[in-house]
Design brief:
Length: about 350
C-alpha cells in the first residue's frame, strides 16, 4: 500500500510542472551604431626600437666621509633636508687633535725665539751661520707642523660640498667615525641624468650626442635626452655598456625613479598603431578593430612608443582598421559607423 501512495503523490506534484506555460524570452534590443574614427594599419620600414631600463640619478652626488677618527659630536641634518654649500653636516669630537695644535704652536714660538736669539748673537760674532740656518730650518718645520695640525682640526667639521639634499644618512650622533667611512650622501637637485646598461650589440651604433627617447612612467613624462657619456668597455658579466642620458632642465623627475630608454637598432619592417587606439584593461592591452561594420575586440602586445604612435608586436595585421580613441561604452560586436 505504501508504494502506490508514494507514486500518486509524485504524480500529483509533477502535474503542475507539466502544465506550466513557458513564455518565450524577449529578444534584446539592437545596440545603436557608434560613430568612430579608424586608422589603417601599415607596415613601415623603420629602425627597430629596444626598450632599455634605466634609473634617474642626479648629476652631482657625493659620498661624505670622515678624514679623522673620533666620536660624532653633532649631526645637525636630517634625511631629505636641503643643504647649502658650506653648511655643517657632521661635527667630530677629537680632543687629541686640538692638543696637537697647541703643542705645535708652542714649538713654533720656541723656534722663533731661538732663531731671533741666534741671529742677535751672530751679529755680535758669538754664533755661526750654520747654527742660524739650522734654527731657520727648524722654524719652517714647526710652521708646517702647525699648518698640518690646524688642517686636521678643520677636518673635524664636515661640510656640504655643494647645494643639494641629504639623500642618505648612515650614522647617528655618538657613533665612531673613522677615515674613509661614508657618513652621509648628498645629491644635487637641479641637474639629472638617466643611467642605463645598453646591450653591447646596440651600443656599437651609438655615439655621444645621439638623441634618445626616454619615458619616466612614475613622473608621467616623455622626452628626448642626449647621450652624454658612453663607457668604452662592456661589463663582462651583464654584457652591457654604461650610458648616461641627459634630462632637460624643464623635466620634473626625482632621483631613483625608473626610466625606459628607447635605443634604435637595425632597420626593419614595423607595424604602427595610433597611441590612442590602444587602451588598458587591467594589465592587458587591447584595441577595437572595425570588421564588417562591427567592433571586434583584440588583445595586442605593444613595443616602443614613438611620438603619438606605438609599435604593435602581436595581435594585429597589415591592412586592418583600428578604432582611434574608442568610446568607453564600446563593446564587442557593436555596430560601427565610420566617420569619413
Amino acid at each position: 500500500m505504501k508504494a502506490p501512495t508514494f507514486v500518486f503523490i509524485l504524480s500529483t506534484l509533477a502535474l503542475p510542472a507539466g502544465c506550466a506555460k513557458h513564455e518565450p524570452a524577449a529578444a534584446p534590443a539592437a545596440a545603436p551604431p557608434v560613430r568612430v574614427t579608424v586608422a589603417t594599419m601599415q607596415l613601415e620600414e623603420a629602425p627597430l626600437i629596444t626598450e632599455i631600463t634605466g634609473t634617474v640619478h642626479p648629476v652631482r652626488r657625493a659620498q661624505i666621509a670622515a678624514k679623522v677618527m673620533g666620536a660624532i659630536e653633532e649631526l645637525p641634518v636630517a634625511l631629505g633636508q636641503p643643504v647649502r654649500a658650506g653648511d655643517l653636516l657632521v661635527k667630530i669630537a677629537a680632543g687629541e687633535i686640538s692638543a696637537r695644535v697647541l703643542q705645535a704652536r708652542s714649538q713654533l714660538n720656541q723656534a722663533r725665539r731661538d732663531l731671533e736669539r741666534e741671529r742677535s748673537l751672530l751679529e755680535k760674532g758669538a754664533s755661526t751661520d750654520d747654527m742660524v740656518k739650522n734654527l731657520a730650518d727648524r722654524l719652517a718645520m714647526t710652521e708646517a707642523m702647525v699648518g698640518e695640525a690646524e688642517a686636521m682640526v678643520a677636518y673635524t667639521s664636515v661640510r656640504a660640498p655643494f647645494d643639494g639634499v641629504v639623500a642618505r644618512k648612515l650614522v647617528h650622533a655618538g657613533d665612531l667615525a673613522s677615515p674613509g667611512t661614508t657618513l652621509l650622501e648628498v645629491e644635487g637637485t637641479d641637474d639629472f641624468e638617466i643611467e642605463a646598461g645598453i646591450p653591447d650589440s646596440l651600443a656599437e651604433r651609438l655615439a655621444t650626442g645621439t638623441p634618445l627617447g626616454v619615458e619616466v612612467p612614475v613622473a608621467g613624462v616623455r622626452f628626448t635626452g642626449t647621450l652624454v657619456e658612453l663607457a668604452p668597455a662592456a661589463d663582462a658579466g651583464a654584457r652591457t655598456v654604461l650610458a648616461k642620458i641627459s634630462v632637460p632642465a624643464a623635466i620634473a623627475v626625482r632621483s631613483g625613479q625608473f626610466a625606459r630608454v628607447l635605443v634604435p637598432g637595425a632597420p626593419g619592417r614595423v607595424l604602427f598603431a595610433p597611441a590612442g587606439a590602444v587602451t588598458l584593461f587591467g594589465q592587458m592591452e587591447r584595441v577595437f578593430v572595425a570588421r564588417a561594420g562591427r567592433a571586434e575586440l583584440r588583445l595586442v602586445k605593444t613595443g616602443a612608443r614613438r611620438d603619438d604612435r606605438v609599435e604593435i608586436l602581436a595581435g594585429l595585421s597589415d591592412g586592418e582598421q583600428v578604432v582611434i580613441n574608442p568610446p568607453a561604452g564600446l563593446r564587442e560586436g557593436q555596430p560601427l559607423e565610420v566617420k569619413p
